Amino acid sequence: MITGERMAAVDENAAALGVPRKQLMESSGHAVARAIRTIADSGTRVAVVAGRGNNGGDAFVATRFLDEYEVTTILLGRAEVIGTDIARENWEALQQADYDVRQVTDSSGFELPEADVIVDAMLGTGISGDLREPAATAAWAINEADATVVAVDVPSGFDADQGDHAENRIEADHVVTFHDTKPGLGDLAADVTVADIGIPPAAERFVGPGDVDLARPASRDGRAFVIGGGPYTGAPALASQAALRAGMELSFVAAPESVAGEIQGYAEDLIVQPYESDRLSPDQVDDLVDTAERHDDVIVLGPGLGTADETLEAARLFLESYTGPAVVDADALAVVPDLETDATLVCTPNRRELARMGGPETDSLCETADEVEAFAAELGHVVLAKGVDDVATDGERTRICCSGAPGMKVGGTGDLLAGIVAALLEHAGPLDAAAAAAYVNGRAGERLADDGSMGFLASEMLAEIPAVLWGVADE
Ligand SMILES: NC(=O)C1=CN([C@@H]2O[C@H](COP(=O)(O)OP(=O)(O)OC[C@H]3O[C@@H](n4cnc5c(N)ncnc54)[C@H](O)[C@@H]3O)[C@@H](O)[C@H]2O)[C@@H](O)CC1
Ligand SMILES: [K+]
């Protein structure tokens, strides 16, 4: 099962792996044609009704594979408004080669040709809301027609993310969906065929630019609240700055009075909130929970906190009463096993911390991904295990991230990662945020390691984060 949204991400990852979308469109169209051959004898009249998105593009391809049928292909709209280059190229291929193609510019001009099979390629996973004109009129005519309706990917009017249906949706007899079934498709009164369109399994398993598409902030929003510092001061400063670089509007650091000035001194962009103590202790917990919940903050708990008993006790108490999203990193990870919490956690252990939490001991996270998954399932939280490769898992779904460079072994890169996860949690679910953050952090390091450099600093990676996060599609 895959949502339409995730499908688009996987498709982007496939392109990055060398299988471009046009190739997937060719496979999709071919799969639709194969399905029609199993349903209808050669010579049958087929009407293809296509929209101006890639769903329509799939159907233009299908037309080329249906030479033994009497096919009429109708484009809803003018050719100039076809939404993507690949769909347009496939439309032009039909026009140039003298297929029976028609364009309908408004709903009054829509006339459904006599047909025994109708291919519904008006809308796929790109739909929002009820069908608008001229698709609405076309859907009505298709539903009224005495013909077998074959829907491309999903029946037009079906939302492949939620499984909802528009009032004026297509009632399909057959659905040829691509790569994997979509939520709610099985509940329809239609035969559903899942067609393999040649997406490499790595496009799902390995984190790529498509995962960043899913988590990229579209607006500058949110408040990161880093609870860290005490024995160390650089870690909370890096995490909180990384959150700003990854799209947060404000970044707060709650830190002991004794080090607050030092943390502020690293960056004027941070809002440092001192508390009266040399280190985090249970006395501060109520205030911290109250502040975080009042402002809908995303918490980063751990960077630079140290391992004093009272600090770990405070970390535990905080997570027991806090109910929002939180990234748990570094020393605070020790309290997560056996924790009772309603918070949404992303735990970001390195290999050592993972083993200490009771997870697998391993030299290669990538090879141990299944064990990390089982550990996350047992823990009941998303785990982003950090190493040469990173493993992000919610206990059911697992993604491996191979971006990064050897120079990133330097101290502080994990703090950056925690801050990036926090920023992406403002816009995405915990697994998507964790996977995308790992990719972004690794790419930020790669940008500085271009010449094989081992000498860059975590603080220098900060400035690379925006370019990776908002520029990744153009790389
Ligand atoms: N993502 C993938 O991996 C693949 C996708 N493919 C095809 O691409 C499809 C998705 O393509 P697109 O993203 O271009 O989206 P669609 O082809 O579903 O439609 C997008 C267009 O529909 C319009 N639209 C949206 N809501 C509407 C409404 N309620 N009424 C009327 N018009 C509306 C939009 O303005 C947009 O131009 C899939 O369903 C599938 O058929 C395949 O080519 C193969 C691979
Ligand atoms: K469709």
UniProtKB/TrEMBL annotation:
Pfam families: Carb_kinase, YjeF_N. Binds 1 potassium ion per subunit. It catalyses: (6S)-NADPHX + ADP = AMP + phosphate + NADPH + H(+); (6R)-NADPHX = (6S)-NADPHX; (6R)-NADHX = (6S)-NADHX; (6S)-NADHX + ADP = AMP + phosphate + NADH + H(+). Its cofactor is Mg(2+); K(+). Its EC number is 4.2.1.136, 5.1.99.6. (6S)-NADPHX binds at residues 54-58, 124-130, 153, 235, 304, 415. K(+) binds at N55, D120, S156. Keywords: ATP-binding, Isomerase, Lyase, Metal-binding, Multifunctional enzyme, NAD, NADP, Nucleotide-binding, Potassium. Residues 205-472 form the YjeF C-terminal domain. Gene3D superfamilies: 3.40.1190.20, YjeF N-terminal domain. Residues 7-205 form the YjeF N-terminal domain. One of its GO terms (biological process) is nicotinamide nucleotide metabolic process. AMP binds at G414. InterPro entries: CARKD, Nnr, Ribokinase-like, YjeF_N_dom, YjeF_N_dom_sf. GO terms for molecular function: ADP-dependent NAD(P)H-hydrate dehydratase activity; ATP binding; metal ion binding; NAD(P)HX epimerase activity. Catalyzes the dehydration of the S-form of NAD(P)HX at the expense of ADP, which is converted to AMP. Together with NAD(P)HX epimerase, which catalyzes the epimerization of the S- and R-forms, the enzyme allows the repair of both epimers of NAD(P)HX, a damaged form of NAD(P)H that is a result of enzymatic or heat-dependent hydration. In the C-terminal section; belongs to the NnrD/CARKD family. Homotetramer. This is Bifunctional NAD(P)H-hydrate repair enzyme.
